[in-house]
Each structure stands twice: as C-alpha cells, then as structure tokens.
C-alpha cells in the first residue's frame, strides 16, 4: 500500500502534483497518514519506512515552497530575517543605557547598534497570562487602535501562510504635535518557540499601499516583542519590546529619543488598562 501510495503521489503523478495545489496537499497527507499507520503497527519503523519518511519530508518542503509566489517567499524570508536580527540585538547584554524608569518597574533602555542606529528596549511584567497578550497583539492586531491612542489604525494588507502578514499602520500625532502624522508598511512574523512567543517585523515595500499625501512614510526595523511566562508566576508575562524606527523628516535627536521612549512606556500602560477593563475572549474549541 505504501509503495503504491508513494509512487502515485511522488512519482507517476509528479506533473499533476506540481501543477495542482489540492493534489499536492493530498499527496503529502496520504504519505504522512500511511507512514504513521505503519509506524504505530510495529515496535519500530523499518529502514525503508524511515527512508521514505525522509523523502516525503523533503517533498513536502518543496511542495510548500511552490504554494507561494516569489514575492510571497521574499516577504516570508524578510520577516524571518527581521526576527533573527532583532533577537540578535536583544541577546547582547552590553552597552544598554537607561532611558526611562517607572515606579512600577517598567524600564526603557537604549543602545546604538552598528548599521541599525539607536534602538530602544522596553522591559515590563504584565499581570496577565501569555496567551491573553498573544491574542491581543497578534490575533486581534487590527483592533489596537481601539485601546492605544498612539495608533490610529492597523490594517492587515496580506496574510502569507500562518506566520507572516503585511500591515499598514497609521500612527497618531504625538502630544504637542512634536511629531506629525507617520505611517508604516511592514512585514510581520509571529513564531512560537516552546513557551516563548516572538513577534518581529521590519519595513517593506507593498505596491498596493503607496505613500499617502500629508503623511510621512516612516520605517520600522528590525523590531520585535518577546513574550514568555514569568519565572515562578506563569499567570504573569514578561514582555520585552525592541523598537527600531526611522521617523524620517527633519527632527532633532533629542525629540526622537524622548518620543520613542515615552511611546513604549505609554504602550505598556495602555495595554494593562485595556486587559484589565475588557474580559478575556472565550476559549476556542
């Protein structure tokens, strides 16, 4: 049965597999199901089954790639690149200077990173489980403008696979009109690594969202948020936000530094207030 399935899906029907998305998925599913059935039927899979498992894994990887256009693959790679760069910056503990320290323990640090510029690092503990934060920051991203006054609107322009989205964000003007209206077009990538969630992104180009009159197109990146349960208190979440922004325009560095560090502090306060005042979404089946 397995030999016939593999030959049908990966061999004699290869031209059809290459051209039909539905059949591609059926091929991978059929091979996977048969391998699992064989593996469960005996104490250990045979060498031949292991060989086919490796081949089917490679086939599945290649078929997955063909599900996306070259542009979509470029966006996926760009999101993953942003994540790796941002995590690399966060992993370095040297050179951070304190920008802002709140009485509740929230703090903003900064450092200058070669080829990136000045970056800001928010570290806070939120009295909510990680799943709740993930729900708000990823799955309900477009609703952020409802509770964060620094954001007028976030719109998902395109979703690519299960991890990557292209977004347009319209930021509100800063207090006192120190910074005029800005918008951002970004590729964002969300990944889970064990008990940790990483949300990363950076500026990108998207033809269907050109620059808008009266709004300066600023640029993110690389940036990320890292969420994980607080050690010893799993009902609380440690949130670390790396912020890297080029606001464009003619702005003194002192104003930029003040606005960005305060934006991070305000974000933490608005997020807490929103989570405390709104019920948690019902658990999904």
Automatic annotation (TrEMBL):
Keyword line: Lipid transport, Lipid-binding, Mitochondrion, Steroidogenesis, Transit peptide, Transport
Protein name per the record: Steroidogenic acute regulatory protein, mitochondrial
UniProt xrefs under InterPro entries: StAR, StAR-like, START-like_dom_sf, START_lipid-bd_dom
UniProt-listed PANTHER family: STEROIDOGENIC ACUTE REGULATORY PROTEIN, MITOCHONDRIAL (PTHR46489)
CDD domains found in the cross-reference section: START_STARD1-like
Organism of derivation: Myotis myotis
Database matches in Gene3D superfamilies: 3.30.530.20
Complex formation: May interact with TSPO.
Domain START: 67-280
Keyword hit for Transit peptide: yes
């Amino acid at each position: 049965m397995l030999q016939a399935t593999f030959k049908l899906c990966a061999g004699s029907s290869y031209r059809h597999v290459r051209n039909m998305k539905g059949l591609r998925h059926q091929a991978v599913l059929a091979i996977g199901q048969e391998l699992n059935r064989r593996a469960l039927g005996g104490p250990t899979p045979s060498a031949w089954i292991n060989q086919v498992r490796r081949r089917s894994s490679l086939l599945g990887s290649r078929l997955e790639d063909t599900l996306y256009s070259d542009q979509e693959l470029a966006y996926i790679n760009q999101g993953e690149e942003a994540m790796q760069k941002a995590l690399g910056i966060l992993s370095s503990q040297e050179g951070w200077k304190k920008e802002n320290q709140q009485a509740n323990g929230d703090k903003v640090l900064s450092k200058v990173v070669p080829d990136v510029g000045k970056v800001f690092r928010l570290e806070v503990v939120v009295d909510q489980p990680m799943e709740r934060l993930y729900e708000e920051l990823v799955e309900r991203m477009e609703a952020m403008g409802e509770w964060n006054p620094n954001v007028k609107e976030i719109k998902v322009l395109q979703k690519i696979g299960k991890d990557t989205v292209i977004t347009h964000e319209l930021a509100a003007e800063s207090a006192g009109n120190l910074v005029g209206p800005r918008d951002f077009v970004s590729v964002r990538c969300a990944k889970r690594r064990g008990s940790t969630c990483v949300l990363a992104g950076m500026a990108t180009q998207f033809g269907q969202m050109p620059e808008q009159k009266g709004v300066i197109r600023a640029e993110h990146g690389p940036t990320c948020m890292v969420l994980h349960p607080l050690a010893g208190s799993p009902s609380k979440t440690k949130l670390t936000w790396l912020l890297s922004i080029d606001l464009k325009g003619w702005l003194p560095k002192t104003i930029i530094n003040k606005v960005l560090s305060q934006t991070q502090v305000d974000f933490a306060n608005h997020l807490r207030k929103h989570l405390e005042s709104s019920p948690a979404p019902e658990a999904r089946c």
